Amino acid sequence: MVYSASMKLHCLGTAGYHPSETRQTSCYFLPESGIVLDAGSGLFRLPSLIQTDHLDILLSHSHLDHICGLTFLLSVLYQHPVQRVRVWGDEAKLTAIKKHLFCESIFPVPLDVQWNRIVPGEAFSLGNDANVVPFALPHPGGSIGFRIDWPSASMAYVTDTTADPKADYVPIARGVDLLLHECNFRTSQDEWAIKTGHSSTRRVAETAAAIDAKQTWLVHLNPLETTDDPVGIADAKPYLSKIGVAQDLQVIDF
């Protein structure tokens, strides 16, 4: 797939649950804006890519595969200092992170970050160029997706939810230039997807078709799937031709 590029998204971690030999857990970076989507184990790859004097880390939720990389920030900032780090998330999730992940017995060094509450449905701006619309996603414990609009590009990040073409988030994300959507299970494992609050290939394809993004990439992939085709991408092709499976260290232009 080839598209004219105005933004770049770096896939620092594309797995769910735990790392594999080839994938770290969820973390995506937009160097031009200093925006990090989730802070999984892939966050250690951040330093050489930083272009701004700040970082804004948007957390979908507080399951460990999406937040463990917050403890890597000391190393990241030692290698590439910035003036400001803000972590954005649901208030209850941020409280849990500060109380448990950063309790003295687990991580004894205080982090110099600003903690900022997100409320689904309440848009906010990052800098002068990025407008963020957070939206609620059904998932055990709750999750948040994001639509981000810049003057010349747009994207949506949808992870840790069960895909549904009639979901409330579909009209919010509709028409974006780039859609990142989780796909933790194959179509044949749909029962497991529903049981765990995740998505399977055919459901994602139907949902992505309803969103009608210019390009769609599947993320939050099952780390136990070690083949070149971890989701059975053929199941998605009848619904959507511009769809691919994201890889660690891939750079997506949109």
From TrEMBL:
Domain Metallo-beta-lactamase intervals: 24-198
Matches recorded under SUPFAM superfamilies: Metallo-hydrolase/oxidoreductase
Pfam families membership: Lactamase_B_2
Domain of life: Bacteria
Molecular function GO terms recorded: 3'-tRNA processing endoribonuclease activity
InterPro entries: Metallo-B-lactamas, RibonucZ/Hydroxyglut_hydro
Signal sequence interval, chain numbering: none
PANTHER family for this protein: ZINC PHOSPHODIESTERASE ELAC PROTEIN 1
Protein name from the UniProt record: Ribonuclease Z
Organism: Rosistilla oblonga
